[in-house]
Amino acid sequence: MPKPSDLLQGTLDLLILKTIWQEPLHGWGIARKIQVLSGEVLSVGQGSLYPALHRLEQQGWITATWKDSDLGRPAKLYALTKEGKKQLERELQSWKRLSSAVELLIENA
Amino acid sequence: MRRIRIIRNRLRSLLQRNRQEDELAREIEIHVSQLVKQLVADGMDAEAARLEAKRQFGSMDAAKEECRDMRRLTVIEDLFRDFRFALRVLGKSPGFTLTAVVSLVLGIGANVAMFQLFDAVRLRSLPVERPEELVSVRIRGEGRSGNFRGRNSQFTFAIWNELRQRQASFASVFAYGDTPVNLSPAGELRNVDGLWVSGSFFSGLGVKPQLGRLLTPDDDRPGCGWPGVVISHGFWQREFGGDPGVLSRTLPIEGKSVPILGVTTPEFFGMEVGRRFDIAMPICSAAAPDLGNRMFWFLAVMARVRPDSSGAAARSQIQALAPAIFEATVPAYQPQDQAKFKQLQLELEPASGGQSAFRESYTRPLTYLQWMVGLVLLLACVNLANMMLARTTAREHEFAVRRSLGASRWRLIRQVLLESFLLSSAGAAAGAVAAPLIGKTILGMIGTARDPVFLELGAGWRVLAFAISVTVVATLMFGLAPALQAGRANSRGSSDNLERLNLRRGLLLAQVALCMLLLTTALLVSRSFQNLLDTNPGFDARGLLVASVFLDDARYSPERRPAIIQELDERIRAIPGVSAVARSYVIPISGSGWDRGARVSPVDQPRGVNLNSVSAGYFDAMKLPLLAGRDFGAKDGPTAPPVAIVNQTFARTFFAGQNPVGKTFRLDGPEPPFEIIGLTGDSKYRTLAEELSPIVYFHAGQERVPRTTVRFVIRGAVSPESLMNSARRVVLEADPQLNLRSVILQTQLRESVLRERLMAKLTGAFGLLGAMLALTGIFGVTAYIVSRRHREFGVRMALGATGSGIVRLVLAEIALVLLSGIVIGSGLALTAAMLMSSVLYGIKPYDPTALAGVGLALSAGGLFAAFIPALRASRVAPVEALRAE
Questions:
Q1: Do A66 and B34 lie within an 8 Å CB cutoff?
Q2: Which residues touch A44 (CB under 8 Å, ≥6 apart)?
Q3: Chain B residues with beta carbon closer than 8 angstroms to that of A80
Q4: Domain A11-108, second-level architecture
Q5: Between chains, do A45 and B5 touch, taking CB under 8 Å as contact?
Q6: What average pLDDT does this structure show over B254-260?
Q7: Which of B18, B158, B271, B439 is most buried (most C-beta within 10 Å)?
C-alpha cells in the first residue's frame, strides 16, 4: 500500500481528525483540505485515506452519514464523535510532545 | 458509548454486507470523479484526466480490499466461506467422511457413555437439600463383632440411641438401614427394598412429600409397632399405578396391614447410588430383639453440619463423645474384647454423595474403563490424523495454488482445522445419541434379577462439558498435524518429504504401541475373569438348589420349629430325583457370612474364622470331601458336648497342618470349648476371588433354639429349575402360609462375578474395537510409506538393486518401527497391568505369554501389511517408477 513517505506513522489519523473537528467532510474534502491547508506540502494517498477513514469509524472515533453535499449530490460525510474529540486531544498532545522534542534535539545537537 | 458504537459498526459490517460494498464503491467513485473534474479544470482533456485520476488514485480494488479489512469483515466472512468449502470437500469424498464419522461416533460415544456412568456413580450428589452439609458418622477401629445385616451395618441401635441423645453439634442427625421387606403373605418371597429410618431422617435430609406426610420423630418411638410407612415415588407408580387414593391403602408386612402415610418426591431415590428404596419404615418397627441386641449391626448414621459451624468443631466434639457412647453400649463380649470395644472411635466423612457399596465396588472398574475408552478414542484420532495427512498430501496442489493466490498460512491451517472440527462435531452429535444406549446396555450387564441396579443417567452440565472438551481435544489431536502440514505448503509445490515420512513413522509407532496396550490389557482382564470362572469353589455347585424357608415367629414358636423342619426335610427328600438334602445357615458365595474370633487355648490371641451351622449330610450334599474324622450324627444333640468340623486352612492356621480331629478350640465368647470331630476340604466362603480362609462348621442339631430361617441345600439328578418348582410345591403342602425363596447355586456363583464379567466383556469389546482401528491404520500407513518411496526404489533398481532386495529393505524398515512400537507398548501395558493388579485374579501383571502373543500377532499383521505394497514396489519397472513422480 502506498504510504505517504513524508507522514510519520499514525500522523494520518491526527490529520483526519483535525480536518473534520469543526464540520463534517467527505473523503474528497478531507484530502483536499489536508493538501490546501498544508500549503500543498502534504498529500494523502487515496489508497490509504479510505482505509484510515473506515478504521477510525470502526474504532468509534468518527461517524459517517450520507448527506447532500457541496459536490451537488449525496456524499458520505464524516464527523467527529464525542470520544473522537477526546482522541483528537490525546493525539494533539502526543504530537506536540513529539515535535517539541524533535525541535529541541535539532536545535541543541 | 464508544463500545456500543463499535459493536453496532461490526454488526452492520456483517449483516449489511452488500450495502456497505455499494457505499464503498460510490464513495470511491465520487472521489475519482472529483479528481477528474479538478484535472479538467486545470486544463487537461477529459480522457487524459480520467486516466490520470485513476493513476493517482492507484488500485481501486486494493483500496476497497483494505477498507474491507479495516471493517474486520473478512474474519467472519471468510469463516462462512471456509465452512461452506469444508462441507463441499467432505461431501466430495463420502467414503472418507463416513469412516471418519463412524470411528468418531464410536470413540466419542463410548467416552461420553462411560463418563455418564462415572458421573452417576461417582460424582453426583444426593438429591436432597444442601447435600454438601451432610457428613456420615463412622466407627473407626477394630473390636466390633456380632451379626452384621445389610449394606449399612455401621451401628447398633444402642449406639445410635446414645449418639442421638448426646450429640449437640449437628443441626440434625439421623440413622437408616436397608433390609428386604417381604410383601407376599405366603409362597415364594416377594422382596422389595425397605429402609429403616429414624424419625429425623426425612426432615434431616430435607426431603418433601409428594403426597400425604413423611415420617417424623413422633412416629419413631420405642415400642411403636407399625404406625405406618412411607413409600417412594417409583414404588407408588409401579405398585399402585400412581393411584392418588394410595393413602387409604395398606401393605401386608409381617402379617399386619400397615397403613401408607405418604409418598416421597420423584427425585429422592434413597441413600445409595445404584440402589433405590421402596418402603421407609420407622426404626422402632424393627423386631424388638434386634433393637435390644448390642451385637446386631444394621444402621448407618448421617448428620447435617450447622451452616455456621465448621466441620472441624463438629468432628472434635463427636470424637470427644465417643468414649462415653461406647462405654454405655458395650456388648456382652469377653473382658478383653470389651476393652477393645471401648477403644473404638467416631469420625466424620463428607457424605454429599451418600454412601454406597455399589459405588465403592464399581469406582475402580469404571475408572479403568474410562481410561480404556480414552485410549480407543486416541487410537481413532491417530488413525484419522493419518487419513487426513494422506488427504492433505493429495491436496498439496490445491494448497500451493491458494498460497500463491495470496491465502495466508493461517487461512489454510484454519481451513483444515475446520474440516476436522466438522467431522468431530458430527461424530459428537451422533455419539451423544448413542451414549445413553451404550450406558443402558452396560447398566443392564451390571444388574441381575435378584440384585437390580438403579441409576439415573442424566445429562448434567458435567457430562455436557466433558462431551465438548472431548470433541475439542479430539479435533486438535487428529486435525492439528494435517493442518500444520497444509500451512507449510508453499507455492513451490511439495513440502519436505523426509519430515513427513518421519511423522508417518511416528504415527505408526504410536498406533502399534497403543494397540499393544489395549490388546494386552483386554487379554489380561479376560484371562483373569476366566480364572475366576474356573476357580474351584471347593464344592460342586452344579445341580444344587438352595431353598430358604422363613418360619414366622408368631406361628412357629421355638418349640414348634423342630417338627416343621423335620417335616419339610422329609417332604423334600421324597421329591423324585433328589439325591441329597441338608441344611446350612450360610450359603457360600452369597456375599454374606458369619465370623468370630477363635483360639486354641484361652491365652491365645483370637484369630478370625468364618462360621457356618449345618446339618448332618451337608458335606455329602455339597460334595465337600470329609478328609478325616466323621460327619455330625444323631448323637450330637443339644445336650451332647459341643462338636465342630473344620477345614484344612483351619488345621493349617491353628494346628500347623496336623490332623485336628480330637483336639479342641474356643470362640472369643463365653461358649464352652468345641471338640473337632472332622476335617473337610477347603472351600470358598463369601466370594470366589477371596483367599481360602479357616472355616468352622457347627452342628445345626446342637443349637438350643432353631433359627427362623431354614436353608435347604438340595442336590438332584433333575434340572434345578424343575427342582425349584417341586420344592416350592412340597413346602406349601406342608404349610400353605410359609414363605420361601429358592436360588440356583450356580446362578448365584455366576452373578457373584458380575463386576469381573462386566470388565472382561467391556475391555474385550473396547480392545477389539481399538485393535480393528489400529490394524486398518497400520495397513494404511505402511502402504503409504512404501508408495511414497516408489521413485527411490526405481532409482535403486536402475542402479542394480534386485526386487527381493527392495522387499527386504521395506520389511526391515517397517519391522524396526513395529519393534519399537511393541517395546514401548509392552512398557505401557506393564504399567497399566501393575495399576490394575487389584482387580486381576489369579494372574500376574507381568504376563509374558500375553505380551509375546499380542506382540507376535501385531508384528505379523504389520509385516503382512508391508509385504504387499513392497512386492508391488519391487515389480514396478524402474523407468515407470521414475516417470510416475
A1: no
A2: A4, A7, A12, A15, A30, A31, A34, A35
A3: none
A4: Orthogonal Bundle (1.10)
A5: no
A6: 88
A7: B271
Chain A residues touching residue B57 (CB < 8 angstroms): 46-47
pLDDT at B678: 94
For testing contact with chain A, the best of B20, B22, B31 (most A CBs within 10 A): B31
Taking contacts as CB-CB distances below 8 angstroms, the residues of chain B near A40 are none
CB contact under 8 A, A54 and B70: yes
Inter-CA distances, B647 with B238, B517, B594, B653, B701, Å: 47, 42, 16, 10, 20
Over residues A38-68, the pLDDT tens digits come to: 887 777 776 778 888 888 888 888 888 888 8
What percentage of chain B has pLDDT greater than the value 90?
Answer: 22
Residue B416 CA, chain-centre distance (Å), reads 36
Cα separations (Å) of B136 from B339, B347, B384, B767? 25, 8, 48, 39
Summarize pLDDT for B527-548 with one digit per residue, the tens: 888 888 888 889 998 889 999 9
Instruction: Return the number of other C-beta atoms located less than 10 Å from residue B571's C-beta.
Output: 17
Q: Which residues on adjacent β-strands are paired with residue B667?
A: B598
pLDDT band at B611 (very low <50, low <70, confident <90, very high): very high
Q: Please state the domain extents for chain A.
A: 11-108
Return the closest-CA partner of residue B173 out of B135, B146, B139, B138.
Answer: B135
Residue A51 to residue B56, Cβ atoms within 8 A: no
Helix/strand/coil (H, E, C) string of B160-193? HHHHHHHCCCEEEEEEEEEEEEECCCCEECCEEE
| CB pair distance less than 8 Å for B70 and A75 | no
The single-letter code of the amino acid at A19 is T
The C-alpha of B444 sits at a distance from chain A's nearest C-alpha, in angstroms, of: 60
CA atoms of B820 and B800, how far apart (whole Å): 31
- Scanning the structure block, which residue is given the C-alpha cell 457428613? B135
Measured in whole angstroms, the distance separating CA B712 from the mean position of its chain's CA atoms is 36
DSSP state of B40: H
Beta carbons of A58 and B6 less than 8 Å apart: yes
Taking 80 as the threshold, does the pLDDT of residue B1 lie above it?
Answer: no
Q: Is B2 on the interface with A (CB under 8 A)?
A: yes
Kindly list the residues from chain B whose CB atom is less than 8 angstroms away from the CB atom of residue A66.
23
Cβ contact, residue pair A46, B56, below 8 Å: yes
Nearest to B376 by CA among B477, B287, B297: B477
Q: Give the residue with greater pLDDT, B71 vs B574.
A: B574
**Spatial separation of the C-alpha atoms in residues B504 and B770, rounded to whole Å:** 19
What rounded mean pLDDT belongs to chain B? 85
pLDDT of residue B278: 92
**Which residues, in sequence order, are CB contacts of B146 under 8 Å at separation 6+?**
B156, B293, B294, B295, B296, B297, B331
From chain A, pick out residues whose CB is under 8 angstroms from the CB of B34.
Answer: 28, 71
Residue of A nearest to B26 (CA): A75
Whether B27 sits inside 8 A of A76 (CB atoms) is yes
Please answer whether residues B259 and B250 qualify as being in contact, where contact means their C-beta atoms are separated by less than 8 angstroms. yes
Say yes or no for a CB contact (<8 Å) between A60 and B5. yes
- Residue with grid cell 399405578, as numbered in its chain: B241
DSSP assignments along B809-831, one per residue: HHHHHHHHHHHHHHHHHHHHHHH
Q: What is the DSSP-derived secondary structure letter of residue B669?
A: S
Q: Quick one: closest CA in B to A73, which residue?
A: B30
Q: Which amino acid is at B876?
A: V
pLDDT digits (tens, 9 = 90+) for B388-435: 888 887 788 888 888 888 777 888 888 888 899 999 888 888 888 888
Q: Does residue B604 contact residue B638 with C-beta atoms inside 8 Å?
A: no
Residues 6 or more apart whose Cβ sits within 8 Å of residue B465: none
Nearest chain A Cα distance for residue B60, angstroms: 8
Of B30, B63, B66, the CB nearest to A71: B30
